[in-house]
């Protein structure tokens, strides 16, 4: 019945742009990219050296409500506006590095598991089960507590405990794709095993991973910020949304005096995560064959 | 399952081991009883096998764990295990109060959303859920605290009022379950029960919000898939009213993936108590972990990790069993 | 036959689906009658609208589908005017349906017995125990061994053939006047198909319901039906009694279809094949919808749509060149005989 | 095995067995075996079509897949053009063991029984085994290692040659083509693998093949979903055909298609067979289709061959009660001929636990006590008409 219709790509794009939430997500994402790229122009630089260190503007730790000079206010002597703007870069860095590496590890382990099968598969999948049995946040907390403070430690901890779901996903997809007739046909043609994987299996299994990745960027940024909030993440004064939020822990009983230290970085974080989730959601609808007519 | 337990302890131990013998020794020495004796260092090195290869150390450590010796907790100022057991009921109480409304509301909304796919109500619920899913729990908690305590003064943080707290610490207070709301009822103090509930509202809302956003999404997509199935058409063809088609024929099938996917993840979200208890100054396992992390109290945090992992493993087992109860195709095996 | 006595009259039915790519006119002007106790066959290839026709009559279309025109009259009542609450009482009670895939048509989380009892409890004034007895009875009637045991089993514990029997038991549990069977044996093996067809025949004799047999298999049609509707691209192209249809097909599509099947009792080197493919339902050709594949097509066929006209008593066909076709059939049969 | 000698033997499946393990429990232990194909033998001659027919679960597809080594057979031999290809796709150690078990050990035993190498060679009835025995005794003077080495040499080339010669067409025109590849790559992939053409020559070859199977070569840059079911099946045919294979296994190649399209593809397969001298192993459940395309037909039931004969003999005079009932069960497109059917009772039993004796006996209308006890062998009842039944021809239509 499928006679020639519009090209698949154009159809997908049309569908994408017709989806209001997808457009909203894309716009938000573009906004954050602009903020990240032009951070020096928007918030200035730290003349003392490291740009990711929020410059001190006051030696008193008392919160200062927003003024024209410090539009988002000051907490712990640090300018929140500077922190939020430069924190965008930190968020992208965290999200992309963690997602990228954990997906890489996940794809590698999942593929090995599915390809070799047998006891290799059995052992790898048990390892996945074991890693999944430690709650993600708790595992990351233990890891960062032991490794010590610093953003790099957070990244390592989240990668170590973040690859499992990708591994499971890709393994399942490969096992499913391996039974497809076009894979058997390629085998019958005499195609080499690794070429079958590269040409026939991975192109048909990688999209769910892409969708999953885009959805996970948000949750990694949240977790990293959470660790900073608990004081086991980035160092104090680092341009990171979670770090700014963690200053409020000292003012917990009078948040009305430090509301700006929650509202501004919090809003940035919500919008950032929302952007990725919206995009991921739209991508999933598009790639999910069941959603197509 | 024993395999997984062993694996978990191995992973956690290898993290401890990464500390190196010096820092390990230093951390052991912090326990007050260790400090009483002069040859503490040698004794500890022997006890934990710090001068021996990793497998031996692991076995010694595991042996201690199995005997209930999780080390000394600086946060709890006592052994790690008793400190945790003392705090666990508070977390359990919070979780139970959060989980019941979550499951009911999330499944109900998920079904509504799926049945009215792409209608206004569906779009509304979806956006609501998506925002919920994007809202970090600690940000949401801080905002709630800001609005309902700092600005409006309605719901204070903590467990109970100071005066009630004193009563609860006193000798005549009967500690039966250690869960304030239940103990209050058992002690016949309705006023304390109400007060404890008042303190629970914000934490429960915070914990619940994230959960139900997640559950709702899974329910919705599972329901959408089921509604396309042939047997739904069969049910309609034999004249089953639409609401029974949805509530009975579709929902029971849709719950199968909800159980497997969501069951495990909800247990995983237990981690959320770390933030909730920290923000609302509640005593509990989550707060225990957070404080331990701040104080670099290794033994407390490792004990906490083991504790949470154990709960997660048991929880997954429960999910597997209930899965078989719902799906007759599994029961057969 | 007088269509006023018909149990079901379908007149110029049009069912459209509103998809993202445009309007799919799945059923576009379909007319037929079903009389009590008879079997009407609806035959055609995939996408011709035969299943949508039955779903339209039962009013079971999904939200994208819409009955855009025509009339459905069941027992003298206009089906489209019946409110949904009333329709529910008709479905399963007066009209029932069985589907192609016995694997997916039964709900996996309920026992077979529960699913049959549900239909009985909905439409008959009996209590649960009576319903259970009736369900067991029904299972016995459809030839399921040990019905007392099977009634408490789940669908996955039954074989494909047994599941289809259970479906039939469910459909017939309320003694409907009209039963739609949508490709009921397509997913089954030949020997099981023979069992099911035999069962349906004997049950029809026993219960006297009218049966609408929807299939792509001319063999099943020849076996089961008394009268046949041939559909192509959402339209009825020929409508006749079964013997007449097979002996004297009067539409080039029917004739092509009959010659395209390899038969057990003849040996042909080359099969007749209808060239080309079924047209895109979003973009049906003007005029006769078969003109793109018809050996007799002329400009007239490409411009004007042929009406369904009576070529002899109780035999209608929608073709401009019935006489040419008759000539062609004569020549080709003579060729085969030589 | 067969007495048809007018054309050369192309493929012999010799006592082919394929069992699938059923695993369960924590340690994925094998708890049962699905005996999908359980000791079947058949020959396929050059330029003929052998039909393999049976109901679902009878093992016909597994047999086809095992012949092509898309499934590794559990045991048995697959001989193609006079070469034992069985060990081509085995891991090296397994292949060595295979050669030792199947050839060297057997030869040694025959020699000690017959007294001399010559006697051992002569004890073989078929040319094929005799030829290998001669090589072993004469060329290699019973040097085991040299013999194994020689057999195992050039396995990569042997594998490639086998893949080129034996191709497959699948049932499902939707899942048999990679949705993310253009048609020119789908069809051209084989030519590239086997170096039949390079660079732009591949496209010329693809265009040529596409025309031959009735596709427009202008469509070679399209993706599979832009074609109809019948056209996609033509793409599948072209993918196999570009290698110029000798044998094509057609696995339910027309079952998923509408009647009118099915006729188109059947005619195409027929034309191509004549033009390229192809040999088909045609697997289908539809007796009418199988009868139309085949020269000889094998009827399978529950992992066994029930009957195998020339098409005319099989359809005019079926001897196995299963064949008779199968033919009787098919509804014919002729309302005047309402025949009395033989309706088999019950379902096909599970291949995990097949019935004892004759596997058909629980459903057989003429089963006797011996049928449950003993397993009938596939025997020639005359003129290459094989049947495995104790009472052949006793069930009449």
Q: How would you portray this structure in words?
A:
The complex is a heterotetramer of chains A (293), B (333), C (338) and D (397). Chain A contains twelve helices and two strands. Chain A has a single domain, classed as MetI-like fold (Orthogonal Bundle), CATH 1.10.3720.10. Helices cover 70% and strands 1% of the residues of chain A. In chain A, helix 4 packs parallel to helix 8 (164-178) and helix 10 (193-230) runs antiparallel to helix 12. Chain B is built from 17 helices and two strands. In chain B, 77% of the residues lie in helices and 1% in strands. In chain D, strand 11 (379-380) and strand 12 form a beta hairpin. Chain D contains 14 helices and twelve strands. Chains in contact: A-B, A-C, A-D, B-C, C-D. The interface between B and C is medium-sized, with 22 and 30 residues.
Write the topology of this structure.
The complex is a heterotetramer of chains A (293), B (333), C (338) and D (397).
Chain A: H1 8-18, H2 20-37, H3 39-43, E1 74-75, E2 78-79, H4 80-116, H5 118-132, H6 136-147, H7 151-160, H8 164-178, H9 181-189, H10 193-230, H11 241-247, H12 260-287
Antiparallel strand pairs in A: 1-2
Helix pairs in contact in A: 2-4, 2-12, 4-5, 4-7, 4-8, 4-10, 4-12, 5-8, 6-7, 7-10, 8-10, 9-10, 10-11, 10-12, 11-12
Chain C: E1 8-19, E2 22-34, E3 39-43, H1 50-58, E4 65-74, E5 77-78, H2 84-90, E6 95-98, H3 102-105, H4 112-123, H5 128-141, H6 147-150, H7 160-172, E7 178-182, H8 190-207, E8 210-215, H9 218-224, E9 227-232, E10 235-241, H10 242-247, H11 252-260, H12 299-303, E11 309-312, E12 315-317, H13 322-337
Parallel strand pairs in C: 3-8, 3-9, 6-7, 7-8
Antiparallel strand pairs in C: 1-2, 1-4, 4-5, 9-10, 10-12, 11-12
Chain D: E1 9-24, E2 29-45, E3 49-53, H1 60-67, E4 75-80, E5 83-84, H2 92-114, H3 117-122, H4 127-139, H5 144-152, H6 155-165, E6 166-169, H7 183-193, H8 200-212, H9 229-241, E7 247-251, H10 259-276, E8 279-284, H11 287-293, E9 296-301, E10 304-310, H12 311-316, H13 321-329, H14 369-373, E11 379-380, E12 386-387
Parallel strand pairs in D: 3-8, 3-9, 6-7, 7-8
Antiparallel strand pairs in D: 1-2, 1-4, 4-5, 9-10, 10-12, 11-12
Helix pairs in contact in D: 2-5, 7-8, 7-9, 8-9, 9-10
């Amino acid at each position: 019945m499928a006679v020639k219709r519009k090209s698949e790509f154009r159809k997908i794009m049309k569908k994408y742009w017709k989806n209001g939430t997808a457009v909203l997500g894309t716009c938000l994402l573009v906004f954050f990219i602009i903020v990240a790229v032009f951070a020096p122009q928007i918030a200035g630089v730290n003349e003392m050296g490291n740009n990711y260190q929020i410059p001190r503007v006051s030696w008193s730790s008392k919160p200062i409500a927003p003024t024209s000079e410090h539009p988002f206010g000051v907490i712990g002597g640090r300018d929140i506006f500077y922190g939020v703007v430069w924190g965008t870069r930190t968020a992208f860095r965290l999200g992309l590095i963690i997602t990228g590496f954990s997906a890489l590890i996940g794809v590698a382990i999942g593929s090995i598991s599915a390809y070799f099968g047998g006891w290799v598969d059995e052992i790898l999948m048990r390892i996945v089960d074991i890693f999944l049995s430690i709650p993600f946040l708790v595992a990351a907390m233990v890891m960062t507590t032991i490794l010590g403070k610093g953003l790099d430690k957070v990244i390592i901890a989240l990668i170590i405990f973040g690859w499992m779901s990708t591994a499971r996903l890709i393994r399942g997809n490969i096992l499913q794709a391996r039974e497809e007739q076009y894979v058997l046909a390629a085998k019958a043609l005499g195609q080499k095993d690794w070429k079958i994987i590269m040409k026939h299996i991975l192109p048909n299994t990688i999209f769910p991973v892409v969708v999953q990745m885009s959805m996970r960027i948000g949750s990694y940024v949240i977790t990293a910020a959470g660790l900073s909030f608990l004081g086991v993440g980035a160092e104090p004064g680092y341009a990171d949304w979670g770090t700014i939020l963690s200053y409020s822990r000292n003012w917990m009983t009078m948040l009305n005096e430090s509301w700006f230290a929650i509202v501004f970085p919090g809003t940035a974080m919500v919008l950032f995560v929302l952007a990725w989730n919206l995009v991921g959601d739209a991508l999933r609808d598009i790639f999910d064959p069941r959603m197509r007519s | 399952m024993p395999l997984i337990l062993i694996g978990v302890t191995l992973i956690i131990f290898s993290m401890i081991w990464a500390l190196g013998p010096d820092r390990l020794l230093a951390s052991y020495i912090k326990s007050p009883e260790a400090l009483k004796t002069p040859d503490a260092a040698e004794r500890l090195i022997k006890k934990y096998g710090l001068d021996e290869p990793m497998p031996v150390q692991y076995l010694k450590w595991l042996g201690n764990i199995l005997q209930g010796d999780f080390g000394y907790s600086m946060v709890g100022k006592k052994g790690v295990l008793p400190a945790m057991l003392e705090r666990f009921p508070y977390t359990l109480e919070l979780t139970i109060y959060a989980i019941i409304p979550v499951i009911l509301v999330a499944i109900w909304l998920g079904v509504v959303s799926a049945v009215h796919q792409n209608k206004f109500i569906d779009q509304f619920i979806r956006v609501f859920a998506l925002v919920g899913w994007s809202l970090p729990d600690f940000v949401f908690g801080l905002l709630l605290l800001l609005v309902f305590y700092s600005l409006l003064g309605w719901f204070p943080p903590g467990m109970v009022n100071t005066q009630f707290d004193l009563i609860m610490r006193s000798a005549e207070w009967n500690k039966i379950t250690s869960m304030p709301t239940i103990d209050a009822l058992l002690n016949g103090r309705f006023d304390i029960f109400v007060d404890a509930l008042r303190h629970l509202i914000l934490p429960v809302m915070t914990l619940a919000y994230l959960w139900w956003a997640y559950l709702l999404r899974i329910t919705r997509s599972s329901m959408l898939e089921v509604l396309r199935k042939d047997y739904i058409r069969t049910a309609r063809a034999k004249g089953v009213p639409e609401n029974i088609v949805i509530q009975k024929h579709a929902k029971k099938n849709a719950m199968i993936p909800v159980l497997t996917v969501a069951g495990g993840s909800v247990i995983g979200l237990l981690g959320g108590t770390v933030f909730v208890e920290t923000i609302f100054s509640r005593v509990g396992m989550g707060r225990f972990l957070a404080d331990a992390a701040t104080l670099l109290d290794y033994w407390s945090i490792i004990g906490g990790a083991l504790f949470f992992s154990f709960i997660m493993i048991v929880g997954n087992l429960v999910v597997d069993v209930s899965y078989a109860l719902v799906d007759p195709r599994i029961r057969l095996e | 036959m007088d269509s006023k006595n018909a149990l079901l009259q379908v007149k110029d039915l049009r069912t459209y689906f509103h998809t993202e790519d445009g309007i799919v006119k799945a059923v576009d002007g379909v007319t037929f009658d079903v009389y009590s106790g008879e079997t009407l066959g609806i035959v055609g290839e995939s996408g011709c609208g035969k299943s949508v026709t039955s779903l339209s009559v039962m009013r079971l279309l999904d939200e994208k589908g819409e009955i855009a025109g025509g009339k459905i009259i069941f027992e003298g009542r206009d089906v489209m005017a019946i409110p949904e609450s009333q329709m529910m009482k008709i479905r399963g009670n007066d009209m029932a349906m069985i589907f192609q895939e016995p694997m997916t048509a039964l709900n996996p989380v309920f026992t077979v017995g529960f699913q049959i009892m549900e239909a009985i409890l909905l439409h008959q004034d009996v209590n649960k125990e009576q319903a259970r007895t009736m369900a067991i009875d029904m299972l016995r009637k459809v030839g399921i061994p040990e019905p007392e045991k099977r009634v408490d089993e789940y669908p996955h514990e039954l074989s494909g053939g047994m599941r289809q029997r259970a479906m039939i038991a469910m459909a017939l549990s309320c003694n409907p006047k009209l039963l739609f069977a949508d490709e009921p044996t397509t997913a089954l093996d030949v020997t099981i198909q023979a069992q099911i067809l035999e069962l349906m025949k004997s049950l029809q004799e026993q219960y006297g319901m009218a049966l609408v047999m929807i299939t792509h298999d001319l063999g099943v049609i020849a076996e089961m039906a008394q009268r046949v509707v041939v559909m192509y691209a959402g339209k009825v192209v020929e409508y006749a009694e079964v013997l007449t249809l097979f002996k004297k097909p009067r539409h080039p599509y029917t004739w092509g279809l009959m010659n395209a099947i390899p038969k057990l009792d003849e040996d042909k080197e080359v099969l007749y094949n209808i060239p080309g493919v079924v047209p895109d339902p979003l973009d049906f050709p003007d005029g006769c919808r078969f003109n793109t594949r018809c050996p007799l097509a002329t400009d007239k066929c490409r411009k004007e749509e042929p009406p369904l006209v009576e070529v002899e008593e109780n035999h209608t066909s929608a073709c401009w060149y019935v006489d040419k076709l008759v000539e062609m059939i004569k020549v080709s049969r003579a060729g085969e005989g030589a | 095995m067969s007495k048809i000698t007018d054309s050369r033997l192309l493929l012999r499946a010799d006592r082919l067995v394929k069992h699938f393990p059923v695993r369960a429990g924590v340690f994925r232990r094998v708890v049962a075996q699905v005996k999908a194909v359980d000791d079947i033998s058949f020959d396929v001659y050059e330029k003929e079509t052998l039909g393999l027919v049976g109901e679902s679960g009878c093992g016909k597809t597994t047999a086809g897949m095992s012949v092509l080594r898309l499934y590794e057979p559990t045991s048995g031999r697959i001989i193609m053009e006079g070469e034992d290809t069985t060990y081509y796709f085995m891991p090296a150690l397994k292949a060595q063991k295979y050669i030792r078990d199947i050839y060297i050990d057997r030869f040694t035993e025959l020699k000690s029984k017959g007294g001399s190498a010559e006697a051992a060679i002569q004890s073989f009835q078929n040319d094929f085994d005799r030829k290998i025995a001669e090589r072993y005794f004469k060329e290699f003077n019973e040097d085991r290692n040299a013999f194994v080495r020689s057999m195992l040499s050039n396995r990569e080339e042997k594998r490639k040659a086998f893949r080129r010669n034996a191709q497959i067409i699948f049932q499902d025109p939707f899942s048999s083509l990679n949705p993310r590849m253009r048609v020119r790559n789908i069809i051209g992939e084989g030519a590239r693998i086997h170096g039949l053409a390079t660079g732009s020559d591949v496209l010329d070859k693809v265009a040529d093949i596409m025309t031959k199977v009735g596709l427009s070569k202008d469509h070679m840059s399209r993706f599979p979903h832009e074609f109809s079911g019948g056209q996609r099946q033509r793409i599948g045919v072209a993918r196999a055909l570009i290698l110029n294979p000798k044998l094509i296994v057609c696995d339910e190649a027309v079952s998923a298609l509408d009647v009118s399209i099915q006729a188109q593809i059947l005619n195409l397969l027929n034309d191509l067979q004549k033009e390229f001298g192809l040999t088909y192993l045609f697997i289908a459940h539809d007796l009418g289709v199988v009868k139309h395309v085949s020269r000889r037909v094998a009827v399978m039931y529950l992992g066994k061959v029930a009957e195998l004969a020339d098409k005319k003999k099989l359809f005019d005079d079926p001897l196995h009660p299963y064949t008779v009932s199968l033919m009787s069960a098919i509804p014919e497109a002729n309302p005047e001929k309402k025949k009395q059917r033989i309706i088999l009772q019950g379902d096909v039993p599970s291949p995990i636990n097949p019935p004892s004796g004759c596997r058909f006996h629980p459903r057989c209308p003429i089963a006797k006590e011996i049928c449950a006890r003993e397993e009938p062998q596939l025997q020639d009842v005359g003129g290459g008409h094989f049947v495995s039944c104790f009472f052949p021809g006793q069930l009449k239509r």
